[in-house]
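Contributing new records

If you add data, match the layout below exactly. Sequence lines come first and carry their own label; structure lines follow with theirs. Keep one chain per record. Anything else will be rejected by the validation script.
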Amino acid sequence: MSSGAWMMALVILIAVATLGFLISCTVRSIRDERSAHRSVWREFGLSIALMVLFFVTWAAQFIAQWQRFTDEQLTDILTYGRPFSPMPAWGIDGGGPMNPQQIDNLIAYLHSIEIPKDQARKEATDAAEKERQRLLGLGDSLAAAQAKVAAATTDADREAAEKEVALIETELSYNAGRYPSMGQALFNLNCARCHTLGWSYDEPRAPGTGAYGPPLTNVDNQFPDVDDQIDFVTNGRKRGEKYGLNGQSAGRMPHFGKLLSADQIEAIVKYERSLRETRS
């Protein structure tokens, strides 16, 4: 077996071990907390279903995300990781254990399991509609969270509910005067993790004000011609290539043409250009 295959086996082993740990925790909870004369599924069915759902959706999302990146971008991400995220560096140059050939083998494996483009687009569309409905329901979510605060019987429950209220109120303040659009939903799911500080750990700041990626509140200065911005989001640029008026690509910007339709990318760009209204 090649060294690349051994590393792939190690990655799979870690994932399986994580799943096994969660299953063992669930089994211990069932053993220690199960009520007499009640079925396991009736008492713990929701926990089991949520655990299975988490791993299925995590795997599907992981596979789908790779379609945003070129092989060069994947190599960069896998080699150096993302220091601000749980993604570790796997390449030797980034301090990890894998040599360039092993990284190439891993990318080849990812290509072998990636889902078809049509399926990826359908999943992206379904997820965006779900996010849009979440945005539309923020008012109801706030009322429900406030009710949790009123009904809390312990300090821990009250503190958790108050934190939830604060997060929803903050998000509502950022959306004040803006009706939730499909462009906003698509931005949240595809762009916010890099361009909105705190999005990845559920403490988002103002949309598009910059994090790993640059702020977008002046994106119309870089792209006076909206078609240039649409092309950039669709196709990206290789490292060193020019984009917009004065931009030079670092090669890290994903290209979304494989994952999203032309109409969806246009909707994202329209939303991004509306963020200039948040400039201080």
